[in-house]
Amino acid sequence: MNNNLNIDTIKVVIFDFDGTLANHKDKDFVKHRNESDDKRLNYYASAFQNPNGFFEEIEPCDKSEILYNLINKLRNKNIKMYCLSAMKFSFHFRAKQDFVNKKYGKDIELISVGTQQLKLDGIKIISNINNCNLEEILFIEDLEDTVRYLKDNGINVININEIK
Questions:
Q1: What dihedral do alpha carbons 125, 130, 135, 139 form, nearest 10°?
Q2: Which pTM does this prediction carry?
Q3: CATH fold for the domain made of 7-24+61-162
Q4: What is the 3-state secondary structure (H, E, C) of the chain?
Q5: For 18-77, what is each residue's pLDDT tens digit?
Q6: CB 157 within 8 A of CB 150
């Protein structure tokens, strides 16, 4: 974890979805869903039509036990939580929210952005909505490029693998 980060000053924690809150059982899930136009289109259609079972039946995922325990501690401190996910389409938005609700609780609101780089703007908007400074927000992410980008732009961000 970031050695300079004081968790007592954090008011908002934001989690990434894929690879962070959702541990995909198929580690090549992105590659497999894009193997053909039909696979890609069916993937999004399935998520849209069956949001309640999508991450159990179509693209199975597990929750992160480490984050589940952290989330319960954050709740006890009344820290506001969000999930900020980069999505090409919103067809699987409801499926992602359903997964978060089932595995972590209904108090983590999902927000989507179009690219990894737009997560920076998403964090700034969440900061504004919650009337807090960027220093009072912690972002948890699995992609090292995104971690580096956000750190370079002054965001408190840690890689999921750094949480113990």
A1: -70
A2: 0.93
A3: Rossmann fold (3.40.50)
A4: CCCCCCHHHCCEEEECCECCCEEECCCCHHHHHCCCHHHHHHHHHHHHHCCCCHHHHCCCEEECHHHHHHHHHHHHCCCEEEEEEECCCCCCHHHHHHHHHHHHCCCEEEEEECCCCCHHHHHHHHHHHCCCCHHHEEEEECCHHHHHHHHHCCCEEEEHHHCC
A5: 999 999 998 887 777 788 899 899 999 999 999 999 999 999 999 999 999 999 999 999
A6: yes
Give the Cβ contact number of residue 62 at 10 Å: 11
Domain limits of the chain?
Answer: 7-24+61-162
